[in-house]
Structure formats: C-alpha cells, structure tokens
TrEMBL record:
Protein name: DUF4440 domain-containing protein
Superkingdom: Bacteria
InterPro entries assigned to the protein according to its UniProt record, in alphabetical order: NTF2-like_dom_sf
Length: 90
C-alpha cells in the first residue's frame, strides 16, 4: 500500500483508520477495522478492511488485503452480528 502511494498509483488526500482488532498468530498478524478515504477530497468513502501481515525477510508485509464499502448490506449485517456477540446474544 505504501509503495502504491509513493508511486502515485493511489493518491489519497484523506485516510483515517480505526483499528478494531490486532491479533498475532505466530508469524501472521490479523488487522481489522474501518477507514475513511478520499482521493480528491470531494467524495469520502467509508470502508471496512481486513489485512493479514507476515514477516518475510525480516520485514512485515501484507499478504492478504480485503476491503468493502461500508454501505454494503453485508457490512450492516456484520455490524448487527458484532453487536449481538458483544452483548452475548449469539
């Protein structure tokens, strides 16, 4: 991601992230959260993300990156499920 920003492939003028889960499983770390991003400043997208990081040759690298716009119905359903699990209604 940083490489794409540096090369100008991605040109974010706004990137705000909120991390909800950072969990390590041996040499892999799961990072989940939400973000607000804009490339031109006029349209702000709200997205959910899940990234998997792994140490390769002494450096942490993203091995899987998944994003979904938060207006997606599956995201809304996932939030409802998350709230139910948080209060023990699973």
């Amino acid at each position: 991601m940083l490489d794409l920003l540096t090369k100008g492939v991605i040109a974010h003028v706004l990137l705000e992230q909120e991390f909800e889960l950072l969990q390590r499983h041996q040499d892999v770390v799961v990072v989940m959260g939400s973000e607000r991003v804009s490339n031109d400043g006029s349209v702000v997208l709200r997205r959910r993300f899940t990234n998997l990081w792994r140490v390769e040759e002494g450096a942490w690298r993203v091995i899987v990156a998944f994003m979904r716009e938060s207006s997606d119905p599956a995201y809304v359903g996932m939030l409802r499920l998350k709230r139910c699990l948080a209060v023990g209604l699973d």
